[in-house]
């Protein structure tokens, strides 16, 4: 049976590299094109959580990719929700789901995951400094065009070029409503802050405050802590970065919060703090046109509240590669439509649920925040935890032995 020989992947982020690694495992040559000009520009980004479902998908790629990622991560044993005063609202024990699913939940640097995926694909297959501008397609294949005048041809083109995807815009003839702004900004950073008494290893802390403020943090290794200060637009209006540094402005906004929030902010270098406006797109169809398909943030961008943006990009990449590995060349358009049908519902549920959780953080008045905290105290250890895991591990992800337990209890060196 004839098989697909070559795929073009636009974007060397997590979704693009996962897809390329999966295609190579299927015996399909994958060529990855990235607009950024140097490898160092790819190894950016702060810390984040990678949940059980992402590790299960990485395991399907083989080559020990899931083990390599886990070895450079911190195994999370608890997800703890608190108020700004430090009162515990809920505490999820993660050892049980880790054992049941056969896969961990971990905190890690985004660059660590990117490095492992790059090694799986191979540097020689990643074309840097190649900015995609458009494509043409016919019954036999698709030709990608780049801003330096060069072209590349394959039997399928995969758009993995992020929230403001050029492939997506080209697919829609140059017009589409802009991404949906969530109404808040995440100020992200990694700081050097040793001390288990301040930030214990293995717990992801999720703090909810008054005035449209949230704060997330966890330890990445013995010396580093990742954090996110999430500020609603109304709260951000009082954050003065004109007369103050970012660190000083955030320290003022979070003054009065329970330890160690103030110490985390004050320990952080000014240049390490990056404000990111949070967007998504409402769930919708139209991920493919002929031999062209979207994955990851190009198809289903979501807010940060479920920590599933990377996880869903990984899932989509693995599923797409598996389906293309079984497809004949003339069946590519139908296979891409089937891929969208298989993934649209699950990814859409993640987008919608993450958006709804984010709206809880927009509460500004003290009475509304007290009501929200009461709701979290009452339901988050039971109902919300059950719903979260039902969504994350929906029965379609196979259980596999946990082979990496010995590598999970420490962070990157």
Observed structural traits:
19 strands; 13 helices; alpha/beta; globular; FAD/NAD(P)-binding domain; seven-stranded mixed β-sheet; six-stranded mixed β-sheet
Describe this structure in words.
- The chain is an alpha/beta fold.
- The chain has a domain at 6-72 and 111-178 and 281-366: 3-Layer(bba) Sandwich (FAD/NAD(P)-binding domain), CATH 3.50.50.
- 36% of the residues lie in helices and 25% in strands.
- The chain is built from 13 helices and 19 strands.
- The protein has helices spanning 14-25, 39-42, 52-60, 65-71, 95-101, 110-121, 166-171, 233-236, 246-253, 261-266, 309-325, 332-360, 366-392, and strands at 6-10, 29-34, 47-50, 74-75, 78-83, 88-93, 106-109, 126-128, 132-137, 142-146, 151-154, 156-159, 180-192, 203-208, 213-219, 224-232, 274-280, 288-289, 292-294.
- The strands form 4 sheets. A 7-stranded mixed sheet has the order 6-5-14-15-16-13-17. It has a 6-stranded mixed sheet with strand order 8-2-1-12-19-18.
- Strand 18 and strand 19 form a beta hairpin.
- It is globular and about 65 Å long.
- Mean pLDDT is 92; it is low at 396-413.
């Amino acid at each position: 049976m004839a098989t697909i020989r070559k795929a073009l992947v636009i974007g060397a982020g997590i979704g693009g590299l996962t897809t390329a690694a999966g295609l190579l495992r299927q015996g399909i040559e994958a060529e990855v094109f990235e607009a950024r000009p140097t490898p160092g520009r790819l190894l950016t980004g702060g810390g984040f959580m990678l949940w059980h479902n992402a590790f299960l998908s990485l395991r399907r790629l083989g080559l020990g990719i899931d083990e390599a990622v886990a070895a450079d991560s911190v195994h999370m044993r608890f997800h703890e929700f608190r108020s700004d005063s430090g009162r515990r609202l809920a505490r999820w024990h993660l050892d049980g789901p880790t054992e049941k699913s056969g896969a961990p939940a971990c905190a890690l640097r985004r660059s660590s995951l990117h490095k492992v995926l790059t090694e799986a694909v191979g540097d020689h297959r990643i074309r840097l400094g190649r900015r995609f501008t458009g494509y043409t397609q016919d019954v036999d294949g698709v030709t990608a065009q780049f801003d330096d005048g060069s072209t590349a041809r394959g039997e399928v083109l995969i758009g993995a070029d992020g929230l403001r995807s050029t492939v997506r815009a080209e697919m829609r003839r140059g017009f589409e409503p802009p991404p949906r702004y969530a109404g808040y900004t995440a100020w992200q950073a990694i700081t050097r802050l040793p001390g288990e008494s301040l930030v214990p290893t293995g717990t992801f802390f999720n703090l909810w405050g008054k005035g449209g403020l949230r704060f997330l943090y966890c330890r990445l290794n013995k010396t580093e802590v990742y954090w996110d200060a999430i500020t609603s637009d109304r709260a951000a209006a009082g954050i003065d970065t004109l007369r103050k540094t970012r660190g000083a402005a955030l320290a003022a906004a979070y003054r009065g919060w329970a330890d160690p929030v103030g110490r985390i902010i004050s320990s952080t270098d000014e240049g390490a703090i990056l404000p990111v406006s949070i967007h998504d797109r409402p769930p919708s169809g139209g991920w493919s046109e002929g031999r062209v398909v979207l994955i990851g943030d190009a198809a289903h961008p979501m807010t940060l509240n479920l920590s599933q943006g990377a996880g869903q990009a990984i899932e989509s990449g693995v599923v797409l590669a598996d389906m293309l590995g079984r497809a004949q060349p003339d069946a590519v358009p139908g296979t891409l439509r089937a891929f969208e049908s298989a993934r649209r519902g699950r990814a859409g549920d993640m987008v919608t649920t993450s958006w709804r959780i984010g709206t809880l953080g927009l509460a500004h008045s003290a009475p509304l925040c007290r009501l929200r905290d009461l709701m979290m105290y009452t339901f988050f250890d039971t109902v919300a935890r059950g719903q979260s895991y039902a969504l994350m591990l929906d029965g379609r992800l196979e259980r596999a032995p946990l082979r990496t337990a010995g590598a999970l209890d420490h962070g990157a060196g």
